[in-house]
């Protein structure tokens, strides 16, 4: 009986161990599936945009940028699908091992139960049980024998229930195993199609890049002209920030209008600390989107010989997509910016987030906003068909990389 108790304890430990791993794997699978759906939607959105732009006969540069973006997203989708398939493989192996352990334990239980039934059958008559009690040397021994008979009956019943429970568990695991194998095969089949699409996109990319190389000087001039326009917008943003700091300090009564930093009240200091503590955990400024240009100086994504600079990040989102506050704060400015529609500046103590290129604004200066509150609709370009948010982050008047602050950007 001690051996049986030990076996059941081992099985219980295995259930806990496998159950914990299964719960973690389930959470990971749900996260991966969520991201996979986002990537598929992203690829679909880029593809629709590419088809639309081809009909409009948009610039070769724009077509290559869209294609590059789709290729990157497709490569990410393939990697992520492989992760899902590998995770399913681990789950399948775990469940296969668990099934093996259950079968061994079930065989032991059935053998023990069979021996008990056989023993019980040999001494099943009521007369044998009465004689077993009457042959006791004293009342205490008779009482102990009666208790033993009860315990023996309960133990046999308990073993019968364990066999039923283990059999059900085994059936459920086998069903789950079949389902997991089907899911894995589905993912593998989907990956084959995705890889085929990726190869087609790469061929199209090579054809377009051949055109780019032939006219590289012409395209380099176009890029520099566009960068000049971006620099002008960035200077307007910088001016807006300096004026906002001066205005805020004047309104606070500090009189330090020439300072380049905000005069902070205790509440503003607490908000700034809270904002800083959430570095790397802030939500995206749009519900769904993809970064098309990151922060800082970098080679142009198509004409690599030309350097471009970006004071924030550019995020392509769905048409009609809404800009959302990434943290609690106060709207300090709403301004029209030449060449970039409207910009909303939200202050979080001495931190600033700017949401630029909005065609419609839902807030006004002085409004309190909360995390993920919609503050405006992102503008869609008539020429490219892209809906792009320019998102910037500052501490006072110092530029910061939004990619360091936004979760998984």
Automatic annotation (TrEMBL):
Residues 310-402 form the M23ase beta-sheet core domain. Pfam families: Peptidase_M23 (PF01551). This is Peptidase M23. Residues 1-25 form the signal peptide. The keyword Metal-binding does not apply. Residues 22-119, 156-243 form a coiled coil. Transmembrane segments: none annotated. It comes from the Bacteria. CDD domains: M23_peptidase. Keywords: Coiled coil, Signal. The keyword Nucleus does not apply.
């Amino acid at each position: 009986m001690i051996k049986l108790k030990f076996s059941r304890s081992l099985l219980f430990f295995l259930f806990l161990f496998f159950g914990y791993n299964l719960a973690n794997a389930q959470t990971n699978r749900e996260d991966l599936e969520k991201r996979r759906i986002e990537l598929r939607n992203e690829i679909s959105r880029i593809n629709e945009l590419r088809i639309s732009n081809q009909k409009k006969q948009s610039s070769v540069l724009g077509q290559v940028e869209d294609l590059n973006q789709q290729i990157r997203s497709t490569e990410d989708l393939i990697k992520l699908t492989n992760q899902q398939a590998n995770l399913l493989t681990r789950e399948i192996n775990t469940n296969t091992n668990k099934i093996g352990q259950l079968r061994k334990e079930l065989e032991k239980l059935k053998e023990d139960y069979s021996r008990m039934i056989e023993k019980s059958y040999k001494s099943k008559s009521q007369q044998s049980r009465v004689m077993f009690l009457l042959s006791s040397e004293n009342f205490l021994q008779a009482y102990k024998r009666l208790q033993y008979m009860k315990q023996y009956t309960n133990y046999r019943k308990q073993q019968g229930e364990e066999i039923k429970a283990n059999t059900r568990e085994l059936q459920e695991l086998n069903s789950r195993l079949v389902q997991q194998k089907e899911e894995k095969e589905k993912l593998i089949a989907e990956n084959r199609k995705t890889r085929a699409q990726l190869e087609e996109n790469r061929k199209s990319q090579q054809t377009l890049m051949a055109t780019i190389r032939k006219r590289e000087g012409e395209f380099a001039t176009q890029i520099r002209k566009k960068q000049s326009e971006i620099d002008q917008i960035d200077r307007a943003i910088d001016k807006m920030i300096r004026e906002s700091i001066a205005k805020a300090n004047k309104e606070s009564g500090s009189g330090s209008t020439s300072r380049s930093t905000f005069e902070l009240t205790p509440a503003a200091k607490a908000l700034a600390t809270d904002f800083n503590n959430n570095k790397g955990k802030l939500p995206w400024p749009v519900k769904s989107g993809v970064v098309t240009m990151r922060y800082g100086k970098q080679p142009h994504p198509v004409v690599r010989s030309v350097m471009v600079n970006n004071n924030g990040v550019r995020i392509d989102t769905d048409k009609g997509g809404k800009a959302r506050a990434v943290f609690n704060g106060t709207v300090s400015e709403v301004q029209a910016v030449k060449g970039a529609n409207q910009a909303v500046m939200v202050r979080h103590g001495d931190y600033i987030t700017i949401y630029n290129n909005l065609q419609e604004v839902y807030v006004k200066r002085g409004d309190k906003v909360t995390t993920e509150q919609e503050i405006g609709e992102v503008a869609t370009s008539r020429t490219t068909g892209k809906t792009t948010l320019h998102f910037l982050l500052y501490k006072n008047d110092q530029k910061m990389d939004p990619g360091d602050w936004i979760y998984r950007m």
